[in-house]
Amino acid sequence: MISYLKKPGAILGLFMLLLASSAWAQSSGTMPELPVDSRTLRVIEQAEEVYERTDYKRAFFIYRNELAPIGDKYGQYMVGYMYHHGKGVEEDRVAASAWYRLAAERGTKEFIGARDQIMRSLDDAELAESDRRYLELRQQYGDLVLLARAIRQDYDELRRRTGSRVGAGGSPMTVVELNSSSNIGSGSDYYERLERRIQARLEYIAKHTKIEIIDIDVDTMNLALIEQQIAAHVSQLP
Prior knowledge:
This protein is mostly helical. It has 2 domains: 8-141, Tetratricopeptide repeat domain (Serine Threonine Protein Phosphatase 5, Tetratricopeptide repeat), CATH 1.25.40.10; 143-234, no CATH class. The protein is built from 11 helices and 2 strands. The two termini are 27 Å apart.
């Protein structure tokens, strides 16, 4: 029998390779425009260093409170792994299963394997509790929830910059973008990128769920309704 509960370092190595592969990013359903940035990679490396020093409580804190909440799937897997093996936290197979389920939502084979293996070991009462805990996590840190928050952030930015009309509007102002390679961009280009990013995210949601998004035009869409639909979707088991 193949064990998917691999040593964290082996999973991390695989995870880094996957992040470097644009083909994997497209085929695995990675969320659009939510890349793993350099800070996240540094936090992952820090957590691994702390874990290797066997400071498990500190490592668990980093995975649980710094990586898992931003949708980092390796971090979510590691929270499950540490619950599963009682490293830095009291052993809890049900909690482990819930975190493994969250980590596996993008279809990464190793995370799916860990999820399926532990799920087969749970009895009916534990499975019901796993469902409950997983839904709680999904509604806080699931991909769709994080995507909805990102859409709202961009949408509100457009409203702050352009007034009642959400669209770009050709503003002549200069915008400083902290995450931009050039750092400086024209206002109209910046707003157009925000609009394209919102549309790409909405298209992703429509493609990967049964949520019916009729209008992805940021000038006319009902974002509050879309948020309500997403909230209802993640409150149910997939």
